UniProtKB/TrEMBL annotation:
Protein origin, superkingdom: Archaea
Record GO biological process: carotenoid biosynthetic process
UniProt xrefs under PANTHER family: PHYTOENE DESATURASE
GO molecular-function term, one example from the UniProt record: oxidoreductase activity
Species assigned in the record: Natronococcus occultus SP4
Name this polypeptide is given: Phytoene desaturase
Residue intervals of the Amine oxidase domain: 17-489
Pathway given in the UniProt record: Carotenoid biosynthesis
Amino acid sequence: MQSLDGESIVVIGAGVGGLSTACYLADAGADVRVIEKNEQLGGRASRLERDGFRFDMGPSWYLMPDVFERFFDHFDRTPSDYYGLTHLDPHYRIFFKDGDEVDVTPDLERTKRVFESYEDGAGEALERYLEKSRENYEVGMEHFVYEDRSKLRDYLDLDVARQARGLSLLGSMQGHVEDYFDHPKLQQIMQYTLVFLGGSPKNTPALYNLMSHVDFNLGVWYPEDGIGGVIDGIAELGRELGVEYETNRPATGVKGREGAFLVETPEGPLRPDLVVSNADYHHTDQELLPDERQGYDADYWESRTYAPSAFLLYLGVEGDVDELAHHTLVLPTDWEEHFEQIFEDPAWPEDPAYYCCVPSETDDDVAPDGHSALFVLVPIAPGLEDTPERREQYRDLVLDDLADHADTDLRDRIVLEERFCIEDFADRYNSYEGTALGLAHTLRQTALFRPPHRAKRVEGLYMVGGDTTPGIGVPMCLISGELTAEAVLEDHG
C-alpha cells in the first residue's frame, strides 16, 4: 500500500468493517484510533456472557474461509495465527414442518442422493447448479467484489463486459433456482442462504446463487471461541499494527472536513485529519452530520428496502439438545407467507421459518458442564411494534414450535434466558427501524446502487460496512474495509 505517514484517522464504530479498515490504514502508516459506542468490540458480532454461558449475539456462520485467508495474508499472517477452525459435519440440519428432516453434509455425493430422493435427476441438477455457482463466485469475487466499481462508467468497459458475460446478473433467485429444481423443498435448500443477504427469493438477484458455492463447496466452519474469537483475532492484529481502541465512547457528531475534523464525543472532542464511519450509514448521514452536509434526504432512506430485523432468544438449558445440529433450520413447507410478512405486508409471522445455533454441540467452553447453549433467531420485518407483551407471546410460540417440529422441548429446562429484538437493534446499533443487517441486496441496491464509500458532501469522510459495497455479512464487511482503505489511499496516500 501507499503511505499514510502523518495522517491521524478516527474510525467510528468497531464492527467488522471498522476493524478491517483500521488494520489496512495502520499498516499504511496512519495513526488510527477506533472508538466504539458499546462496551466491547465487534459491532453486531458482539458476545453475550452470562452465568457461564457464552453466545455470539449476531453472526454465527463462518463462511468464505478464502476471504479471511486473503485478509490475514495481506499482513503476512494466517487465520491460524489467531484462531483454529473446525469443519462442521453436518454443515446444517433442516427440519421441515411436515416431518421431513435433511442433513446437508460435506459429502456432496450423499447430498446428491438426498436431492435425488425428492426429485428424479435432481442430483445431476445440483452438480450443474453448483458448477454455475462456482463460476459466478470466482468471476464475481475477482472482478466485482474485490474491485469497487462504484460508478456507471466502471461498467462501460470491454473487459468488464467480457467478465460479466457468463454471470447470472439479472432475474431473481426464485426464477434461477426454478430452472434447476421443481420440488419446493429443494428450492428452499438452495435459497436459505438469502437470509445472510437480508433478502427473499423474489427480490434477490440471481447473481447470488454464488452463495451455494460458499455453502456446498467451501464448507461451513466453526472458529475457536465462535465469531467472537474472529473479532478478537482481527482486533489483536490491529494492536500489532498500532491501532488504538476505545470502547464506551460513542460519536455524537462529525463536523469539519479533511484536515480539520471535529468528532464530538461525551468524553470530549477528537480532532483527526480524516474520519471513517462504521456506524450505520443512515445514522452517520442523518444524525452525526450537520443538515447541510448530509448526502441523502429522509425520503431516500424511507424508500430503501431493508433487510429483516430479528426476534432472538438466547437460552442456557439443562442437558443436551442432540436433536439439533450446530446449525439448524426449521422451515414451513411453504415459506412464501413468511417472506411476505417481512417485505410486503409487515407483521409478526404466524408460521415462522427460523434458525437455531447450538455452539455447545461443537464447543464445550460455551456452557457449564451438563448444560447446552443455543439461540433461536426468527427473521421479522423491521419497524414492527416491539413490546414486552409481544415478545412474551412470541417466545411461547417459538418454543412450542421447536417442540412440535424439531423434537426439542426446552420449556422445562431453561436456566438462562435473554431476548433481543427490534428496539434493541435500534438502541444498541443505531440501526434504521431496528434492521438487523441494513440495506437488503435487491437488484436496485446491489453494487453501484449501494451508497458509496466516500461521503457525498464531506471531503475526508469515508463510510464502511454492510450498507456500502460489497454488502452484508462478515466476509463482505471485511472486504468493505479493504475497499474503504483503498479509497483513503487513493485520495491521500
